[in-house]
Every structure is written in structure tokens, then in C-alpha cells.
Fold these 4 entries.
Entry 1:
Amino acid sequence: MSESYALKLYVAGQTPKAVRAFANLRKICEEHLRGRYSIEVIDLVENPALGRGDQILALPTLVRRLPTPIKKIIGDLSNTERVLVGLDLRPRRPNA
Amino acid sequence: MANQKSSRVALKKAPTGIPGLDDITNGGLPLGRPTLVAGGPGSGKTLLGVSFLVHGAQQFSEPGVLMTFEENADELAQDVRSLGFDLDSLVAQKKLIVDYIHVDRSEIEETGEYDLEGLFVRLEHAIKQIGAKRVMLDTIETLFGGLKDSGILRAELRRLFRWMRDRGVTAVVTAERGEQMFTRQGLEEYITDAVISLDHRVHDQISTRRIRVVKYRGSTHGTNEYPFLIDRDGITVLPVTSLLLEHEAPSERVSSGLAALDDMLGGKGFYRSSTVLLSGTAGTGKTTLAAHFVDAACARGEKCLYFLFEESPQQLVRNMKSAGLDIQRWMDKGLLKFHADRPNRHGLETHLLEMHHAVEMFDPDVVVMDPITNLMAVGTQTDVRAMLTRVIDYLKTRGVTALFTSLATSAQSLEATEAMISSLMDSWILVAINEEAHKRNRWLYVLKSRGMPHSNDVRPFVIGNKGIELRPVPAGNSDSKAKPRKARRAK
């Protein structure tokens, strides 16, 4: 478990949801990926063209670029369990 | 009243550029508002939307944004290229932006609150980039398959349509037809300005596409179902009721191929660019009469296109030869061309389309359709009439003289069965047989012929080895003394 995580967080301006998502993400990364993660925040209001590459529709969207495969998690990341599952840091429940 | 009328602001429209559709919508889609286009898979809704965008960009200086949620942009471009649309070149000219959003539920984890601001940002960005006036969302309903929280989705779609109205973009939003509701996800609840329904029905193994304007707030519109076709030129709607009767009406006359028959038609034959119906029971000589008409046209050096729905060209050529008419020579000279097709091979729309193409390619002066009654097997009477109206309109616009044969099932119903189509015809000639003791006698008469005095005689005729020969009316019965003498000249 020494892979490093390259994460992108897509938002549109400093909305409450965006602020919440970033805070939640920082907290989860510090707890589970300390020292081996990077977060790039992409504000589509400033850079709308960047939404195209990762097929961004919903906001906020967290994209795990590395390790592959690419994973996407949408929402304000308030449900830590689901974020961990989405990032493959927790096994998926068998019936999921 | 007058005051009320002047204060009413006419709804502005964005023309689709789709032949026929702008007629039935009285000018196009509501400007600056979304229109819902619903239909089953393969009903042509994507093509309708793409046509709207492409025509907007090419003909009306209105750039467009195509946001697709289904196919990827490459596949889409390929699909529409086969229909004559080059999306890539429009994209290069900055008249079109194609954006592709695909959402796969299995790739996405949802946690907590979100919205579809990403879609808004991208749409806004695309609209601003090229100054788009038109937008197409194809098919936004697929998002319901990609996102779990349909509550958020519905709220966001409502916001999206309001947002597009505020932006003043004219939008086409495609949707799948639903079982319970009009569309699968009830989008008609959010888009109420205009709703168009597309349908691809198979009846008796023959498919017909139809379009209907279900709703158009603030505007009159054609309420019928109209057949439409999709060919290499895109969509064409056949709005029979909107046809304009503005053809030229040449005073030039063309021979029927029989001098004696020409005599009955005011002495000069049919008008050029008119329509002639030739109806009768089986074996009365309709095709032979048609062959005379063709023979005369080709002898004048005119080009003739002959649509056959019953026989093969070879068979017809052979049969005419036995009746003394050599039409093979006109084929050899390239003046006569046959287009033989079984009516039930495809639907009326496809027949119409093929006729259009054949006429366009051969550019004939004269067209024969033999017999149009066989087309009745393919569609309802209303459909066939609509199709013939379209054909006639098209031929008249091109200045083509057209002859249609029609098979009547019984002598009694001769005049009745054709009532439906006869009003489309300028001249109507009936051929029939009556049986005497040991002989069947053929006879013909001119039931009507617009714009000329015509004979009221019922003329006996025979088909010999020199074709059709009209016989004089028994003495005393004719309305013209000159007839018997002229009839002999027909040989």
C-alpha cells in the first residue's frame, strides 16, 4: 500500500458544497493517505474547458487519476465510508 | 377586436430548414425556447435535432451546440455524415460545437450533495465560444441511468430548461417515448412550449415514419400525423396540406399518342405538365394506351420514365410488340427508361423517395405510373392519396406530363373507386369492356379534362397488331359529326 494518489477535485466557484467537499477530502486523505497523495482543485468557472477531459457533469466531482483505473466520486464527500470505497481504500460490500 | 389583434405579439420562430416541418409548424420551432422531440429508438429524433443545428449554422447564421449524452462525438459525426452532414467542417468553421458527456453508473460513486453545475458550465462555455443560438440535448434522459439520485436530477433539469430560456437559446431536447407517460422520464412536465412526436410504425411488414406536432403553445400548427422520410438529404416531411398550388400552367398541348383520342380532347391532346388518370378494369388496354402515349412522346424526342408496379420491363416490351408497338427502340435510344418495383417491397415513403431520385436523375418530360392502384396495397387510401399528391406536385413543378393507370375491380365501381384520387387529376379517361352475346367490346370515354372542351362520346376501340384503333360511334349517337372521319385517320 505505498502507491501514491493523484486526485483532482472539480468545483465551480467557492460554493458551500465545494468548500465542504474539499474539507472532507483533506480530512480523509490525511487519515488514510498521509504523505502519498496530491490534490489539484480545478475551478470550472475559471477554466470551463477543463471539464471536457474528465467528462465532468455533476459537481463537485473527485477524480482519482492515479493509481489507475480512473475513479469518480460525485457529491460533497460527506459519507466517508463511500469515499473510501470509491477510492478503493475499502473493499466494496459483497452485495453492492 | 382590432385593438386586441394588433397588441398580440406573434411568436417568433426559429426555422428548422427541414422541408415540410417548417410548413406544419408555421415557421419553425419557438424561438428562444426548448422543444421536446420524443420518439422510440430509431425514430429519427437525433437526426431531426442535428438537422436543426446544421441548417441553423449553414442557412440561418445561427451557430449551435450539440450536447450528446448517448453516443460519442465520433460515432455521431459518422452517423450523420451518411446523411450528408459534415459536422467536422462545421466545427472547424466555429459554427458548431459537439460536446460529449457520458455517465456510466458503474464508474461513479455518489456521496453527499451535488448538482449538475458541470453541465451548466460546459454548456455556457460552449454557447459563449461561438455565440450559439441553438442547442441540442441528445438524449438527456440517459442521465437517469447514470445517476442514482433522481430527485437531484429532476430539480436540475428543471433548472436547466429555465436557464436555457433565460439565455434565449432555441433548444431541441430529445427523449424516449414512455409507456405510461409521454416520455420515459416525464420530461413533458418541464418542457411545455412545443412537443413533437416521432413514430416508426410497421404495418403489414411495411414501415412508415410519421411526425406529429403534439403541442405548440402560442402558435397554430398542423395537427395531423405526417409521413416523413429519411434519405441522403436528411429528413423530409410530407405535409400534403401545405402544398402550394402555384405550378405553371403551360398552354402547350401534347399528344395522347392516338390522333382520334386527341380529337376527343379538344382536338389537341393533353396539356403539357398536366396529370392524366387512365382507369379501367383488368385487360381493357390501359397499358397499351399508356404505351401509345410513351411512343408519341419519344417520337417527339422527349424523355420518358415509366414506373412499373406489376410487370417486368421485358414483359411489357414484349406485350407491346405483339400489339404493334415497338418501344424497345426508344429504350435503345436512351429516351425511355423503366423503373420496376414491387409495391410491397417497401413503404410509401420509400417509394416516393425512389421516385424522386429516379426523376431527378433521368429528368424526364413524361412520366407513367402503371398501375398506381398497386400502391394501395402498401398504405391506406389516405396515405396513398397523400403520396400521390406529393408526386403530382413534384412532377408539375418540374413541368412533367404524367399519366397514371388505375385498375378498377368492377365496371360498376369504375367512377366511384377513383373518386379519391381523381380530383388530383386534370384529365380522366375511362376504358372498359362490355360483353355482348359472343363478344367483348372495348370502349373508352373522357370523363373529364380540365381547361378544354372534350368529347362526350363513348368510343369503341380495338387492339390490333397496329396498336389501338378507335372506332366511330354508331351513327346518330355522336356529339360531333366530324368524329367518324377523323377516327379513320387515327391509323
Entry 2:
Amino acid sequence: MAVFSADFLPTASWDNLRLRARLLGKVRQFFEARGFLEVETPILSADTVVDRHLEPFAVPMAGRALTGGPAETMWLQTSPELGMKRLLAAGATAIYQVTRAFRQGEQGPLHNPEFTIVEWYRVGDDMRAGMQLASDVCECLLERGPAERISYAEVFAAQTGLDPHAATAAELASRARALGVEIPASLAADDRDGWLDLLVAERVQPALGLRRPVIVYDYPASQAALARVRPGPPPVAERFELYASGIELANGYHELTDPAELRQRNRANNAWRRKEQKLDLPENSRLLAAMEAGLPPATGVAMGFDRVAMLAAGAKDLREVMAFPIDRA
Amino acid sequence: MASYNTSEFRKGLKVQLDGDPYLMIECNFVKPGKGQALYKCKLRNLLRGTVIDRTYKSGDSIEAADVEEIEAQFLYRQQDQFVFMDNKTYEQYELSKELVDEAWKYLKEGMVCSMTLFNGNPISVSPPNHVVLKIEYCEPGARGNTATNVTKPCRMETGAEILCPSFVEMGEFVKVDTRTGEYIERVKA
């Protein structure tokens, strides 16, 4: 008798794989119709995003000559944003890309270490225009109508009764306890962003976009990532996230264009990473060079394509819409 | 002592919290947008059977529990002490009736059970899923009645009382499911 292990088989049904293909076609039609240029940038790069909570895969390079430079380590992209912003600095005005991104350690029903991102940028868009475009993409793919909009402060206050821009770490902590949130023992009393994240994960996010998709905007300035900060009071990050059925589908920035500010954030993020005993990431990048040369004002959005396909399929786990998730890759 | 980092968290991990061994029965990865990743775990206390919720930040770690499954042969019972022997090391373990719990009903001399050790000490023992026991005493069977839905209590050779169909007789052997305590079938000796 032939003995084989059934794990060579896909975890997704053929119906769902066909749905994925149809949705990919829709993505391309959508952007084509609006004059966006489809681009491809390297998945393997000498540069990587310096983020507190993203762990890139480091790839040791066999020979320096191969990399055309000093890099001995290159990185699998956590998103295509560095390459795409370099194209903006080089003259692109409206671009999109469908590509793979890689994030170490992210695994679960809504995460796979390798996943598909749809990312787009349009020069001249402010955050409002960027949110409109994200809502249009979502409406085209999910067919659940346009997204509602609500500020981070409003939705946070609605679920916790606190002002996320003003509340102290101690106030956030005591509210988390009062709300019965299970608290990680290692969460430092003064880690204000950590407490915000915990409350968002436990009490805010699950309620987002249950009736129809919702876009949350104006994030705390401390969570700007690569978005610009609009001066206050209170100063807020011009960043937004799109949710449906309590699941984050996309993240957008009115892009930071100031290289000095990026340098400062990279330094701060690495300092934080060192404190948390995480890998130091290269602070210099060709994105900085692009910013020095001049990055035009733009809004960009990254969308998790697998999650969109999952919701469109009425599925509960990414495995149902991916041919081969990580344990079968 | 070894420990597990959040990146190693998965169902089935045996860990130690406040000195007690726990089995990770669920682990959910959640990450709020660009924020800190959280691991929401359910853990079962292997001594008490209670289940607790714990949330960990990425990068946290939990001490590993020195928990081992061994094959142990039941040797004999001495009042409320049950004596087993590790089939590999021949080391003997004396277990109290509390530790043996429901398993006492099925223990026959020579039976190979699976025993869980924590820091080298037994914390639980489970008999095979199916065991064959001799009926030591029961009321006489109702002649001609072969319906299995009519049952009567039967005392087994181990002293346990098991509900069996009314047609079984004293001295016969029956197969019992040790997980449910239910009669499965009559077997020929």
C-alpha cells in the first residue's frame, strides 16, 4: 500500500482559490481604471523598516559581491513601502503593487509569516483622500458598502471612557483592570503605548466594523510609525486603519516626508528594541536618501489581501483561503 | 531550568506557573494593528484540572515544566496505596487513592498504564482505554432477554461496580471503556 502524508494538499478549497483569483483580478481592474501603474520592487532588500513590533527575516548573503555593496545581511520585506516610496521620489504619481511580505513570529488564524499585501500610493492625497480611496477599494472587493469613519479618540472613548491622547499610563492600567482585561505580567506600568494597545486589542478592535466596514483615523502621535504627525493640541498621527468584522484589513499613512524626523524615529525605535532585547535594525536606508532628495506629499495604504479574501469567502481562518500556509509551505 | 519563549508557544506545551505544572490547551496570537503582539493562552493545571487564562507579550517566556509520560505496570494494591513499576527503569512508585482517582476501578495486576511524572513524582495515572474485567458478582440474568438497554449493576474483580446488560452472568468477562466507565461488550475468557 502506498503511504503518503496528506499535508501535500492545499488547506483552501478550490472554490476559495478561485475566489482569490477573482479578487486579484478585481484589484488590478480597480487600480488600472484609476490610472495607477502596477510596479514591482525587491522582496529581498538591504533596507528594512525599523518598527518596534515587526520582526523581519534576516537573510545571510553568500558573498558581498552579490549584493553590490557592503550588505552581508539582507531582509525579506515586511511591506513594500521602502521601495514604493523610492519610486515616488523618482517621479511616480500613482502606483500599486501586489506582493508578498514576511513577518517573523506572526502565526494564527489571522496571521501567516508569509502573506500577500496590496499596497498603493497616490501623490497629492491628504489623509481624507487616502481614506476615501481605501473605502472604495474595500467596497469593490468586499461589497459591504463604503466604510464609516471614526477617530481613534472617539472609538477609544466609546469603549473605555478614556481620552487616549490625554490619559496617563496609570489611568489606562486601572481602566484595563476595571474592565476585567487579562493583563500580561511583563507589561510595564509606564508603557503607555503598551496599555493603549492592550485596551485596543481587548476592548476596541473586536467591536470594529461589525455592521459595515469602518476606518479609524488620527492615531496617538506616539504610534505614528511612518505617518506624519499633525500638530495639536493634541498632536495626532495622520494614520488610519480599515476594519471589517472586527478584523484589521488595511493601514494607511499620510506619509512622513521629513528625513530628519525618520532618523529620529528609527533611533528611538532601535533604542526601544534594544531595551526589549530585540534585534537592532539598520537605521540608514535608501528611503532616507529618497527623502533627502524629496519625497512628494502622498498617502499610501497597505492591505492584507488574504484577510480580505477570508472575509469575502465567509471564512474564519486564513488557512481556508491560502493554498499552503506556513506549516505546509 | 529551560523555558519557552512566546515564539515557541503552541498547544500541548507543558509549562510551570507558581510551582504547578500546566498544559497549554489554547494559544491565540493577536496583534492590534501596528502594536504589540499578544499571546492569549488557556492553561490547564495538571494537578487540579482547573483552567486559567493568561496573556503574554511577545518576547515573554514561561518556565518549562519537567513533565514526563512513562509506561508503568500496576503491581498490587495495599489498602489505599497503589504500587506501580516503571517498565524501563524498574523504579517503583506508590500512589495514594486520591492520585489514582477513578483509575482504581480498572487496575488489574500486571496492567500497563500511562503515568505522568512532574519533577520525577507521579501526578496522575491512566489505564488503557479498554480493559477486560471479570464479573465477580451480579444478580442472575433474565433468561432470553438479550436487549442491551436493560442493565444491572455488576461488581467486578477490582471491586468497581459497572452497569452491564441484564444477560451477563457471574464469572463472565466484559470489556469496559475506562474513559466513560461504560460496558462495551462481553468477551470470551
Entry 3:
Amino acid sequence: MIKRSSVRIAKERLEALVASDRVHCKPKEYDLICHELYKTLSKYVEITEEHFQVSITRSAIHIQLTGEEH
Amino acid sequence: MGEVIVITSGKGGVGKTTTTANIGAGLSQLDKKVVIIDTDLGLRNLDVVMGLENLIVYNLVDVVEGKCRLKQALIRDRRYENLYLLPSAQTKDKTAVSPGQMKKLTGELREEYDYVLLDCPAGIEQGFQNAIAGADRAFVVTTPEVSAIRDADRIIGLLESNNLKKMELIVNRIRIDMVKRGDMMSVDDVTEILSIPLLGIIPDDEQIVVGTNQGMPAIGMDSFAGDAYSNICRRILGEEIPFLDLSRGQSFLSRLSNLFRKN
């Protein structure tokens, strides 16, 4: 089995930390924000949660729908 | 009119002081008149890194409190043409200087110097507010670690909300062997998250330790880190210098091409 590179773990942890710092909430709350945004959007847009991505920069919140080619 | 630049990071121990010392020395080697200021009240280090600790008579707090004239507190570095140090106080508490006083001080210095470099203390308290008060531009130093990058992100947010929008990133202590095997974040990984322009990449280099031991900036020595710092200095002056190729095998070639570029 291939050992998982530690950079991938670092990046995942860092992204969660930075996103929660930027919206001033705990990492758990950040997960909740993502989930609730998904729930809201999924009422109107046909999408699955695994194709739904939220990224937070210092000045914007981006929602990306991935994996769906139209 | 000179430019006032703050060197900051949030997290301690990522290389702010070393970076200030090397950029200060490097800019003075490029014929610029430079003053470097240690703004870390109570924990002064820049004088030690520069090897000037025995020459201190007056310090930043003495100047601000009017106990001496600004000129009396500036230490001239004999090894470099036109490089001066304004040391911090070792005994005073952190509230001895205010942001307003720092703004006034840097305003005076920029009349006479091409570059005023401020070595910012770690943290986001008053020392940070003091250091950024008079600055036009900020260099954010980080290392490729989760905690350092996270703190850098917060600092960038704070600089933005203090209307200091001209920010550039220095990624310090990169180890290419570890990046290659997936055990250290690459410069691209770091810039992707922090999304501010990159000013320089400093490889992890033993010469930095050797230099600090002797109180000598690495920029004078033939070293990877020293070369990286002199590239930063030339970029500050507006030259377009490609980023150091950190793969060892090509180091000789890239140094050779650097040599030719100078002419």
C-alpha cells in the first residue's frame, strides 16, 4: 500500500483552518455552513453533495459544482 | 522619499529578523541608503543577528521619549555602506511606544533613507500595530508549515483591514527534497492558499545558522539562502529575476546564468 503523502493531510487541515478563520467560526461550523449551503442549493439545483464545493477567500465565498459536464 | 516596509509573519520563529537583516544588508550593497528598525520591545534580536549588540547606546524607546536625538540612536554598520540599525529596548514594556509615534518616526526617516525596514514582533497585539502604522508595503514571511501559513493568512487579513494593501510573500526554509517526496508543501501550495504576489523563496540553508552564529547576514556569503536574498533585493528595486531553481543539479548552471544577467 502507498503511504499517504503528509502534504495532502497538511493541505486539508490548512484549508479547513484558514476557511474557518476567514469566516470567524470553528472548523466544525465551517462544515455546517458547507452542508447547509448545499441543502439550500439542492432544492433548486440538481446536484449531489460530493460534487459540491465551497471555498472561502478573504473577500468572497465561492460555490463550485464539480463533476457535472453539460 | 524613501519607502517604509514592514516584515511580518504572525507566527514567531519563521525568519522575520533574519529576513530583515539580509534584505537590509542586500539593499545597502545595491547602493541604497537603508535603516532597519527592531520594533520588538522587550525582546530585541535584530542587533544580535547583525552582530551589532555591543554598539548599542540608545534605542527606539529613548528616541520616542526624547532622551536622545534620532541620529544618536542609529548604529552604523561598518561592513556595509549606508546601513543603519535602530535597536529596540530590552527592558521597556510593550506599551512604551504608540502607533502614532512610530508613524512620526518612520515619516522622519523616509526623508533621508531610501528604505526603512521594520522588523515586526510576532503576534497581533500592539507591537504589530506599531510596526505597521507607518508602512507603505508589507513582506509576509512564512514557512511551509500549517501553523505558519495559517497565521500568515490572518496577518494578511489584518493588513488588508488596516488598508495596507501592498503585500508580498516570502516563503522561507523550503526543502526541495521533502517537497519532492510529498512531505513538505511546495511554494505553489502556499501561494495558492495565501493568494498574494510572491517576492521570494528562501531554501533551508545551514549557512543561515553559521551566519547568525557570527552575527553576519548570509547575503555576504556564497550560499543558496544568500543568493535568494540578493534576488529579493533586486526584485525590490524592480528588476525581473526568475525564482531560484532549487534542484541542486542545476544550481551551477543557474548561478552561471545569474552571473551573466548582471552584465
Entry 4:
Amino acid sequence: MKAPVRVWAGIVLIGAALICLPFAFAYAGTAWVRIANFAVLYVMLALGLNIVVGFAGLLDLGYIAFYAVGAYVYALLASPQFGLHLPFWVILPIGAAVAALFGVILGAPTLKLRGDYLAIVTLGFGEIIRIFLNNLSRPVNITNGPQGITGIDPFTLGSFSFARPQSFLGLDFSGPIKYYYLLLALTIGVIVVNIRLQNSRIGRAWEAIREDETAARSMGIDTTHLKLLAFAMGASFGGLAGGMFSAIQGFISPESFVLVESIMVVSMVVLGGMGNIWGVIVGAVLLSFVPEILRWTVTPVQEALFGRMLVEPEVIRMLLFGLALVLVMLFRPAGLLPSAVRKRELAASGEAPLVDARV
Amino acid sequence: MDTFLQQLVNGLTAGSVYAVVALGYTMVYGIIQLINFAHGEVVMIGAMVAFTVINALAAGGLPPLAVVLIGTLSAIPVCMVVGYAMERLAYRPLRRAPRLAPLITAIGVSIILQHLAMLVWSRNILAFPQIIQTQTYTFFGATISSVQIAIIGICIALMAGLALLVYRTPLGTAMRATAQNPQVAGLMGIDINRVIAATFVIGAALGAVAGVLYGTYYGIAQYTMGSILGLKAFSAAVLGGIGNIPGAMLGGVLLGLVEALGAGYIGDLTDLCSYGWLAGLMSERCADGGHFILFGSNYQDVFAFIVLILVLVFRPQGLLGERVGDRA
């Protein structure tokens, strides 16, 4: 298929904007570059979860556990905790592989279950991981408990460190800006993998499973293996993002991997449009900037109106998330940017469990 | 033996509260196959409302039992309203939607309720005022307090009341009919919407009482208490066979016992120093009665999830549930 000139022009424009973005943000303050980095990280996470939720239709409420696994693998292998300092390009694949292994461990016993049970089990799994991270400091100190792990190595390649600021071609590249480009490159890789997956034999099989598992099985699709594969692939992207998070932050603790984070990633996927890669990206970017926008608007507005802060921005953010989940499901169940198939599927009434009992 | 009996008493107390909360999950699931994710938050709101009222009245000179009763009675209608609103606004419009949709709204409702509660009551922990004189009784080396006896008694009464309602009244018959086949129930003249709303409201009322009991037992209530309690109660409902009312009762009590006994014994069981040959290997740590405990009672919250996963893997229909075909 030939892409028309306009599509290429669009791609070039978006690319140029993405490349210039960190400098625009740096002008506003390094904090904004960090925020942009987290937005890209969330895009990566949301795309990983989209494989599980959007493609295969398995609601995973404990997705952040894989992110935690990736983050802890990186932290343990590149920090003073065990005195290990392996290079990042060795650890990131290990982290992704370990996360994938956890995905299979979680998936194997639960795949027989129907969607809603699966959601609860994954939620429980996420909590189990967090409880273990919190408590594995005794009798042998592995995770350092609630204090978390500090002094995690940044990414380095030879003498090139991603954490140090550098001048190149008259431009100042701060640490976060360098990470931004690395994250962007990785995320583009993840996007490409996602697009290729969606249009592949595997992707179509996932779609078939999502729409009707029984029918898919009778068509000869090996549902168990494909569902496991969805879990493992989603988990490995989560693990990858976790490793990046660990290095960028330099510090991790179980606090970063609470249930709310899982729900935030689910919200991104749902809001953007389950199964639609571009929708999920839009959802992730939107939701990662919401807290910052609220922080900059809510506090001054409240201080102007009431003379003091009545409602913390954090609470407003969570209320908005909850409301968004409910409203999207009620009025736009396929998300802001729905995927064509998903839209069709959600619009069809299917075999309704109840008669239309609306008053 | 002392530990065993003591943990049995503790487990029975916590378990009977789990059972009452689990009833809320199982009733709703039985009738519309929805995991009402936000039920735990209803329980939390019940506890918070009751504690606020009790704290306000504590200094008023009323008899303590009357204070607690007024607190509970004010929590019940609040929770009923919340339960009704939830069903009407978030779940009813989605009854014909794919399964994932109402589950996602349920998560949304849960987040909204939790953070509204945080706005109303702040992040602080509400403490139960020391107004009830607890008496403790000792038997065979285990102690049981009057509060524990009251909790177990009230839970049994609630479950008996619910069983009467479901199996002996017209509303209960309508509920069971709707659970079996909503279309046919509708044709028989049952107002399905009313029955489903009633199920939510009854579950919420039970949840309110359970919240007060749970809060009283541990002496505190906080806006976050709902999620973990809800998960445990859901596990209990699944253990007993979701959709099955006696199952939820059995599952709740069993889960409470597993949790209490697990927390009581896991430390001893995973103390490597109590195994001869391992103790020899680690003679430095184990000398002079030292311990090398792999997992302590801080893992208590893990048991509910492990039970949940084991049940779903080996007996997905639960202990008392019947095997049903895949309706997804």
C-alpha cells in the first residue's frame, strides 16, 4: 500500500515536533522534561497493557506488578544493594524476560477463568507482589523493604552517561533530555512491534479470542497458548518500562507500585480506546499530563476563590479518573479513539444476559 | 494448643464479618453476574458514617450500646442510598453491554467513592471511642472478649435474617427467580429492575453493619479500609461458590480461619531453625534459641489471595457452587 504524500508529511511533522519537544519543555523548566519522560514511559506501559486488554480482551488489574518486577530486577543488578553493577543493555532484556516469566506464572493457572474472575485474580497477584517487595527485607535483605533501593545506576555506555548534562552542537543536553530520546526510540520500537503484532496471525487470533473464545477454539486456534503469549508479551513490555523507570529515578520503593498505578494504566487504555494503538497513546499522554495541569491550575484557583487549598490536586485527579472510567463506559464505550473492530463489537448487543429492562 | 484455640476465636470473628460482606458480592453476582467492585467502599462508608456519629454522641451521656446502635442505624440508610445510586447510575445502563464494561465502571465507582470519602473524612484514621467496657472470658487458655461474642452473634443473626428474606418472602422468591432466568421472571410479572435495585440495597445495608462491626473489632476506620476488606470478602464469596448464599457464609468463616491460623503458624512453620539439619547449617543464626523465619505474620494479607487463586484453579465453582457452563 502506498502512503500518500500527506501521510508522510504528517509523520515528518510529528517526528520534528517530538524531537524539538524536550527543548521547548527545557525552556519551561527541567521538571517538565521529566514529566514528558514519564508520559513516554506511560505510553510504553499502556501499549504493553493494550496487548493484554485491548488485543486479547483479558482485563489485567495487576499490570503494575510486571513494571515492579522489571524495576526491581534493574535495581538489584545495578545498585550498591548487592554491589552488582551490570550494564543496562544486559539487564533490560533480563528484566523483560523475568517479567514475562511472571506473566506466564500468573497466566498459566488463571487462563481457564472468565474475564471478570481474571481481573480480580490479577489484582490479587499485584497485591501479592507488593506485599512481598515490602517484606523481603527479612531474614535475608533482598528488597530493603519499604525503604526501597537507592543509588541505582543510570544508563551508561562506556564513558557516555545518560545522567550527565552535555553540550553538543551548541545545544545543552541535560540528563532527562538524553533519557527522553532513548525512551522515545524504545517507545517507537514498541509501537512498531504493536502494529506488526496487530496485523499478524497472532494478532488476528487474539482478536478472535476476544470476540468469542469458544468460536475461536473451534476454529482451531490454540487459545491457551495464545492467551499465555499475550500475558507474556504484555508483561515483558511492562518489565522493560520498569527497568527504565528504575534507572531514571535512581530510587525505587514498593510505594511506586500500588494498585492506583495499575488502575491509572487501565484508565489510559480504556479512555484512549481499547485495542487501538493510537488511541492508547493519546490516552496515556492525556492522563499523564492531567496531574501536572491540575497541580498548576487547581491550587491557584482554589486559593483565589477560597483563600486556601480545600481539595488537593491529587484527590481531584483520582476523582476525575474514576469519573472518566464511568462516563467513558456509559457514553463512549469504545474510547476516545475507538478501534474499528472494537466499536462494532461494543455496538452489537450480543446475547444479552437480560431483557432490555430500561425504564 | 493455646495458640490454636486463640486463633480459632480470632478467625471466627473476622470470618463472620467477611461472610456478611461476602453476601453483598454474592447476591449481586447471583442476580446479574456482576462483580460489584465497589462493595468494599460501601462497607467503608458504613464504618465511617457510624464512627462519626458515635464519636459525636460519645460524650453525650447516653448509654454506650444506644450510641453504637444509633451510629449503626444512621450508617445503614446512607449505604442503602449509595448502593441504590450506584446501581441506577453506573450499572443499570450497562446491563446489555459486554462483561468488561460494567466491571470497568465498577472500578471507577470504587475510586470515586474512596476519594469522596477522603474529602469528607480526610486521610486521618477515625478511632472508635473507648465507651464499651469489654469483658474477657478465658477458656482452655484462649480468651474471647464480649465484643467478639457480639460480632459473631450479630453476624449469625444477619445471615439468618437474610436466609429468611431470600427463602421465605415474596421479594426473596422474586430475587431467586430473577437469578435463575431474568427474561422468564419478567414475563411472570416480576419487576426485574426493582428486584435488582432491592438486591443492591439489601447488600449495601448488610455491608453497612459489617463495616461497623469490622471497625469496632479493630478499633479504627479509614477511607482505604474498603479495598482490602472487599477483596478478602470477594475471595470468601468465590471460595464458597459465588452466587450461592450459604456458600458466602461458609466461605467467609473458612477464609477468616485460614487467615488467622495461617498468620498464627506461618512463622513457626517457616522458621528454618526448627528443622534439625538446616539448623546445623546455620549454627550461627540458630544458636541459643535464635530464629531464621522466612515468612512472618506480616504476610497475613497474602493468604486470602492464595486461597482465591487455589480455588479458582482447582474448583472454580467454589465449595457449594454448581458447575455452570461458560456464559461469557
